[in-house]
Amino acid sequence: MCLAIPAxxxxxxxxxxxxxxxxxxxxxxxxxLVEDVAVGDYVIVHVGYALTRLDPEEAERxxxxxxxxxxxxxxxxx
Amino acid sequence: xxxxxxxxxxxxCPDHDTRMRTPAPSPLETLEGxxxxxxxxxxxxxxxxxxxxxxxxxxxxLLAGGTAREAAERVGRLYTLCxxxxxxxxxxxxxxxxxxxxxxxxxxxxxxxxxAEQAREHLWQLLxxxxxxxxxxxxxxxxxxxxxxxxxxxxxxxxxxxxxxEHLLGEPPAAWLSRDPEALRHWCEAAATPPARxxxxxxxxxxxxxTAIPLLPALARWQADALRGLALQVxxxxxxxxxxxxxxxxxxxxxxSRLCDDPTLSAWIADMGRGSATRLLGRLVELAxxxxxxxxxxxxxxxxxxxxxxxxxxxxxxxxxxxxxFVRIEAGLVTDYRILAPxxxxxxxxxxxxxxxxxxxxxxxxxxxxxxxVASLDPCVACQVxxxxx
Lengths: 78, 390
Known about the structure:
The complex is a heterodimer of chains A (78) and B (390).
Chain A lengths: L5 E7 L4 E6 L2 E6 L11 E5 L2 E6 L1 H22 L1
Antiparallel strand pairs in A: 1-2, 1-4, 2-3, 4-5
Chain B lengths: L6 E6 L14 H5 L3 E8 L2 E9 L5 H5 L4 H11 L4 H16 L5 H24 L13 H9 L3 H17 L3 H5 L3 H10 L3 H11 L19 H13 L18 H5 L3 H10 L3 H18 L8 E5 L4 E8 L2 E10 L2 E8 L1 H5 L5 H7 L7 H12 L5 E7 L1
Parallel strand pairs in B: 2-8
Antiparallel strand pairs in B: 1-8, 2-3, 4-5, 5-6, 6-7
Helix pairs in contact in B: 3-4, 5-6, 5-7, 5-14, 6-7, 7-14, 9-10, 10-14, 13-14, 14-17
């Protein structure tokens, strides 16, 4: 996806499969391209693959920016 | 013609969200917007095409008001796929606006960073499953290798050469690049690599080449005067960044605008025109030339120009095409910020995609061909293709 939305890993399954929480919506993704990801970590997801791992502080800053962007879009729509 | 419109086919762009289909997108995902392409079928042809984008333009609202450094940090954080290019464009535009000069080392490092991001994006596009193959997971080895190689020139060039030889071309890049169009067509049929197989499929059932929509000049060809004219439109017309024009026409940007003079690709374009197969081949050619480009051989992929007092523009060649950042800075703070991105050129309602789709025969393979052209132009957001009876 175009925007780098941090997704929190909530479950790690068989092989490289995992479930992430993306702004309240759960999705199944693959961890095949990243190493050492644990439950609770944040990752950036693209087309069903985690591309990079973020530290929690970094993820919080990005989520805050996304929240501001969301308010911006609402303001543009109204 | 007015559409009465009953829905026949509804498909999604293969490069986005095919793996994960959830009932409702997250509010964060709707934030990035999407593109909707509608083909109106009449008889055995396509009567017209509608392309609508809901991609929000966040630059002015999120980047103005702070310092240039803050803008670069924010824009790099916001975008996944071209985050590096976005951050470097922001830095370069601000430097041009304020007259800051960088050392040759910093500029060379910047070039390498952009080329590394291009390499990752091209590799992703060449290896990810296409439509209809969504269940087949790609081999993660080359993608892991390129990420592990980092951005140091020698290590990245070595990793790329190995990936090209073992996973993409089946022969060393130099040998492959010396093939003429006939030898390349033979390679498509004979090689067992994923891009060769995909290209062979495209060549058996080609989509109409784009002829009327021109190529946007590559970054190396731009001059300050032309950019000053573009800046006037970018800052003066609110919709210009959503439907950009070059010399009063839509234009295509991407590998073809960069490689139209490349010896390997220009011969192919002369033979085959500008369709999906040519864009795919272009990615492969560009990737195959990257090991030598990482050693400094080739045109700059980051350039910036001061325009008027406190105003700067920077261009970066990303895998999808030319990314331009325009900034105005007063007393150390950003007052105006605009981003002109490749997706807006290539998905212009009357641009290259519209031309290719309008020329397609409306047979049973229309949806697949349409989806293929969309994927070859590589939108940076999800794209839905719909066919209606006009």
